[in-house]
Amino acid sequence: MSPKSPKTTSPGGPIAPNELKELRRVYDQLCFFSEKAGTMQRLQSIKCTLAEYSRPLTSSMRQRDFFLSSSGHHRQSILGGEEDRETKMAALQQEQAELEKKLSEIRSRNAQYIRPQDTAAALKSLGKRVSKREVQNMMWEVDEKLDGVIDWDEFQLNFERNIRDSSGLEPASFYHMVQFMIYDRDNNGLVSIDETMNMLYARVGRTEMESVITKLFGGDDGAIKEDGRQGGEIDFQKYSSVVVREQQKISSPQK
Hints:
about 260 residues, mainly alpha, Recoverin, domain 1, 2 domains, 10 helices, about 65% helix, calcium ion binding, EF-hand domain-containing protein, EF-hand-dom_pair, EF_hand_dom
């Protein structure tokens, strides 16, 4: 990596308000991500379990529970099963409250920034494991102050540089991860055609939006593959391979 001098101004004007809002959402998500990831995953699991427990027992479910409880070495009444469920729900609700308090404490820290371990954890959550060197290179792309972390001003500046880059030479590994997370509004690790269209249309217009959609979601024959929800979904690996390839096409003549 070659030395770089800090820059304090961003190219062009401000990005669209809706896109800025989504950018801030992703920034808040990435700050201390390595500390929040396991907690958020456990919270999601608890919420799903509580939703299942909250469903009223139908007669068929009661009959199923009776046979299940009667098939083992010990027998358990339906009433006992319901009481056991209430006990488990109370324990889960207490754990949920403790985890939410922990998240609140992390999010309320005066200084909010993204560290190398947060970038690594975010990539891991997207299905991509990277080396320490790769993480360092990604952080270097954004860390204008050279203090080892990424703050909001650096985060926004890097994003604006990349969306305005027409040469394909702007370092973009970190940007590609952020852009994917912006598209992935429901945080399921996949981006859909619908999610992508909603964000792209305001930035680039209909014609270029359709071109990008075809490149991301099209097969070798150019036809859109509607795999998954909301018109079709792709993971970070597919997204990254496409955007890196397209960036290389643009940058080759410049080089």
